[in-house]
Specification:
about 350 residues, alpha+beta, Cytochrome Bc1 Complex, Chain A, domain 1, 2 domains, five-stranded mixed β-sheet
Length: about 350
């Protein structure tokens, strides 16, 4: 078990970030939303404390903790005061090792998720996202909705959650980053207390690599005033030699907000959308925007033209210089501005 530590004794606070391999891609078929539901129950009772008692203890300890289900990981974070770390570490240990998954909290958190699902059924962006995932990933686990469906959530039981937790929460798939007012020797002891009793090895279902099925046009017609547009091109792996060149290109194309080419052409010049952006994911370059339905064809054409021009001509020297300055200048502000953001970056 290895942890990354940045000691900072100038502020009396400790931030811990941790992640277990697995994530949403491990949701069983027919029980989509399992990882997301489990994450929502992280502070809803553990050990001898039911939901109310656990959260009262957490408040008394002056600590904050949470869990999030991502595609590849189950990620957690904890923020605590060094003077109350005994209580905070004790509660975190219980949440990690002895979750209760009582029926009452399950029903309540599940109802909240279902309410969001129902609310998104007429949201063009959510509709586009669901159809988009099915189109580019087919039957691969990446195509399944991370929040689940009304039907899949209804079938998840406390025993399902316990089994899923046991499969994911194990030491061989664990990553840890800690920043704040704690030294290495103290941290070493604390981490043994937190994670030492977890199973040694995860039992993850194999998930095959997948290449997005690009080169297709997917449409979903809805009688709504707004249209959501998503466009994707092949991505560049982070291990590729030209990854950082691609990062700079994306910043110029649509990653830098109000100074990007897409923002200039779509919003500033023509007022077709409030927001338009591009981002690099693990497997694709993604452009997203929303516009009035009667302007969808025009907006789509402009986005394609901007991307085509970038592909054929590349950025100007002035754009490249500005992108380097922007990314270097904002790095510390965006990613190193607090103990929690430093822990996130390490993780």
């Amino acid at each position: 078990m290895i942890a990354w530590l940045v000691e900072d004794h100038t502020v009396e606070i400790v931030n811990i970030g941790f992640a277990f391999n697995g994530g949403i891609r491990q949701d069983p078929v027919g029980k989509e939303g399992m990882a997301n539901l489990m994450a929502g129950l992280f502070i809803e009772g553990a050990g001898n404390y039911d939901s109310d008692a656990f959260q009262m203890k957490l408040d008394d300890a002056g600590a904050e903790m949470g869990l999030e289900a991502q595609r590849h990981y189950i990620c957690g974070s904890v923020c605590m005061l060094p003077k109350q770390q005994d209580a905070a570490f004790g509660l975190l240990r219980l949440a990690l090792n002895a979750p209760r998954f009582d029926q009452g909290p399950i029903d309540r958190v599940r109802a909240e998720i279902v309410s969001d699902i129902v609310g998104s059924e007429r949201d063009p962006d959510a509709i586009a996202q669901r159809k988009w995932l099915r189109a580019i990933y087919g039957t691969h686990p990446f195509s399944r909705p991370g929040e689940g469906t009304k039907e899949s959530l209804a079938g998840i039981t406390p025993s399902d959650l316990l089994a899923f937790h046991k499969a994911i929460f194990a030491r061989d798939g664990l990553h840890i980053a800690v920043v704040g007012d704690i030294d290495a020797n103290t941290l070493r002891e604390r981490l043994d207390q937190l994670f030492g009793d977890l199973p040694e090895q995860q039992t993850l279902a194999p998930v095959a690599d997948v290449v997005p099925k690009l080169g297709q046009l997917v449409e979903e017609n809805c009688d709504l005033p707004q249209t959501s547009l998503r466009l994707a091109w092949p991505g560049v792996k982070r291990s590729a030699p030209d990854h950082f060149a691609t990062v700079l290109m994306n910043d110029i194309l649509g990653g830098s907000g109000m100074t990007s080419r897409l923002f200039e052409e779509v919003r500033e010049k023509r007022g077709l959308a409030y927001h338009v952006s591009s981002e690099l994911t693990l497997d694709k370059l993604l452009v997203t925007t929303e516009t009035r339905s009667d302007c969808a064809a025009q907006t789509l054409s402009i986005v394609r033209d901007v991307v085509k021009q970038m592909a054929q001509q590349g950025p100007t020297g002035a754009e490249l210089k500005a992108a380097k300055k922007h990314l270097i200048g904002t790095y510390a502000i965006d990613r190193l501005g607090s103990t929690s953001s430093i822990a996130d970056r390490l993780l």
